[in-house]
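---------- Forwarded message ----------

FYI, see the Putative plastid-lipid-associated protein 7, chloroplastic isoform C record below. Original note from H. follows.
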Amino acid sequence: MIEKEWQKNMFQGINRGIFGIPATKKSEIERLVKQIESLNPTPCPTLELEKVAGCWRLVYSTISILGSKRTKLGLRDFISLDDFFQTIDISKSKAVNVIKFSAMGLSLLSGQLNIEASFRIASSTRVDINFENSTITPDRLMNVFRKNYDLLLGIFNPEGWLEITYVDDTLRIGRDDKSNIFVLERFDDSNNT
């Protein structure tokens, strides 16, 4: 099990990398991720899916929303991104990604984007992922994103494959077919509503 101290220090103040980070910080994180992946205690994670099941919170991703994408989505001044969660139900071969949003000063527009996907084991480390559906709640928030909903889904759509490169009781790292890295920590979902 990797100590959580590295997470607190490494990811502090970067907002999960979503809005970009300096190249030196990105290189430092990616170097550390490679070191952690080399210590993977679960070399065949799809053969031990119970270690992957449950709720996870995203702490870092190389997916970024920059420039015109950020402006088109209204994220510059109006909407901020809050927590990102992923719940994996291995009995149904389903994953639900929940991206929480809030509108500054307008709690009526706080809500979330839910993206549901199914997965199929492709190898001892890889799953193929198929997008199933998505929703934004409440409807008022959907109205904010309706014009650029395809752009929003294009950024967060999980379709493709995911290589699980590290998993223990508290940490999971994956890499997808779009060359993105995802670092997630296990989360007690009893409070995640």
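H. also flagged this: Residues 5-186 form a domain with the Lipocalin fold (CATH 2.40.128.280).
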